[in-house]
C-alpha cells in the first residue's frame, strides 16, 4: 500500500481545492477495513485520525485546513471554512 489514498479531484475556479476520497487506502480494520474518516463510528479514534492524516497527505494540506462535513442525505449546503468539523451537509 502506498500510504496515500486515491483522490478524485474537481477543478474549481475559486480559492478552494476540492477532492473526493474513496474508501481505499486506509488503516482501519475489521468491519471498518477502509479509509474510514468518520469519528462518529465504532472505529478506533486512532485509526480515523491516521486515515485523515493520509487524506491530508494525499491532498497536500495541513489537517487544520481541511473542512469535513458530516454527510447526511438531505438538502443542507454549508460554506466550507478552514478546519470546520462535523457540520451536517450534503454539499
Beta strand %: 15-25%
Q: How many extended strands? A: 4
Distance from N terminus to C terminus (CA atoms, Å) equals 30 Å
User: How much is the radius of gyration in Å?
Assistant: 13 Å
Overall pLDDT level: 81
> Helical element count?
1
Global structural class: alpha+beta
Structural features, described:
The protein is α+β, with helices and mostly antiparallel strands and 91 residues long. The chain has a domain at 7-66. 16% of the residues lie in helices and 19% in strands. It contains one helix and four strands; from the N terminus they run ββαββ. It has a two-stranded antiparallel sheet with strand order 1-2. A hairpin with a 7-residue loop joins strand 1 and strand 2. It starts with 6 loop residues before the first strand and ends with a strand. The mean pLDDT is 81.
Characteristics:
91 residues, two-stranded antiparallel sheet, 1 helix, 19% strand, globular
Give a quick precis of the structure:
By secondary structure, this protein is an alpha+beta fold. It has one helix at about 45-60, and strands spanning about 5-10, 20, 70, 85-90. Strand 1 (about 5-10) and strand 2 form a beta hairpin.
What is this structure's SSE topology?
Layout: E1 7-10, E2 18-21, H1 45-59, E3 68-71, E4 85-89
Parallel strand pairs: 3-4
Antiparallel strand pairs: 1-2
Amino acid at each position: 500500500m502506498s500510504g496515500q489514498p486515491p483522490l478524485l479531484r474537481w477543478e474549481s475556479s475559486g480559492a478552494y481545492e476540492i477532492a473526493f476520497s474513496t474508501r481505499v487506502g486506509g488503516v482501519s480494520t475489521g468491519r471498518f477495513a477502509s479509509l474510514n474518516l468518520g469519528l462518529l463510528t465504532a472505529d478506533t479514534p486512532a485509526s480515523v485520525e491516521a486515515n485523515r492524516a493520509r487524506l491530508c497527505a494525499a491532498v497536500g494540506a495541513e489537517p487544520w485546513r481541511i473542512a469535513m462535513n458530516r454527510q447526511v442525505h438531505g438538502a443542507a449546503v454549508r460554506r466550507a471554512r478552514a478546519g470546520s468539523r462535523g457540520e451536517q451537509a450534503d454539499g
